[in-house]
Design a protein that fits this description.
With about 300 residues, the chain is mainly alpha-helical. Among the domains are: about 105-170, Histone, subunit A (Orthogonal Bundle); about 190-260, Crystal structure of tRNA isopentenylpyrophosphate transferase (bh2366) domain (Helix Hairpins, Orthogonal Bundle), CATH 1.10.287.890. About 55% of the residues lie in helices and about 5% in strands. It is built from 14 helices and five strands. It has helices at about 10-20, 45, 65-80, 95-100, 115-125, 130-140, 140-145, 150-165, 190-205, 210-220, 225, 230-240, 245-265, 280-295; strands at about 20-25, 50-55, 85-90, 180-185, 270-275. The strands form two sheets. Strands 2-1-3 form a three-stranded parallel β-sheet, with helices on both faces. It has a two-stranded parallel ribbon with strand order 4-5. α6 (about 130-140) crosses α8 (about 150-165) and α12 (about 230-240) packs antiparallel against α13 (about 245-265).
Amino acid sequence: MGPTASGKTALAIAAAHRLNGELVSVDSRQVYRHCDIGTNKPTRQELGGLRCRLLDVVDPGTPFTVADYQGLAMDAVADIGRQRRLPVLQGGTGLYLRALLDGWNLGDAPPNPELRAALEQRLEAEGPEALDAELQRIDPASAARAQRNPRRMIRALEIHAVTGRPPSVARESKPPPWSTTIIGLDVPLPELDRRIGSRVTQMIDAGWVDEVARVRREFPAADLQRLGHGYPELAAHLDGRLSLAQATESTVRQVRQYARRQLTWFRADRRVQWLPADLEMIVERLRVGIMTAEAS
């Protein structure tokens, strides 16, 4: 795990090849089909024969929630394990990772996928403060119980919107019976900023503007904001509201801000072992985790 442009995909691929593994994407944007350049999906050439689960799950415009991800990812991890291979999760969506590894209970409220998706998007874009403020206004007691826990705030707001009643106390989470090693890639911020700027430029050179035009044409109901940073900006460029330079600059700025929010998420999890982006070191740490799990 790690922020955007930290190098996690390439290292996860290399580690999976070395350890008889298979990848599971932990990315809220790579689930969308037809959004390849803008979500920086690994290519077949980069994967080198590896399979990566949870890519290209739904079309743009189709609601997809953290609960949807949790169920599909649970099935993927179990299936990889049945094949006696190592599930290697890689991605930067902390909400998805926590829901999966902590076994969040996401089924208390009657389902409203569009509402939950919107709340998840708002959480990712604005941080937990925005949801906390709304919950404080609706039900201060529930806000106090939630303590800015993303799962509890999203569920409380969903319960209120769907049922019209004050949010109830959530049932306990039930983590899956897995032994996990969580590695965070430690990249200095100046280097991360440089990589983000370079990556956005490369993505535009690779045809990102054409991809945005195609998605808008084929999926007019798609929420471009949910597809990720850059899609709304490049759409504004196509409409003549921004120059390409302005759209690029805005995208780079927003991705850098997002990377900092990702780091805030990840650094709050004490299970994360922060390491430099060194393949040998990461493979060794994963081997230690495997041996520890087998011994226990």
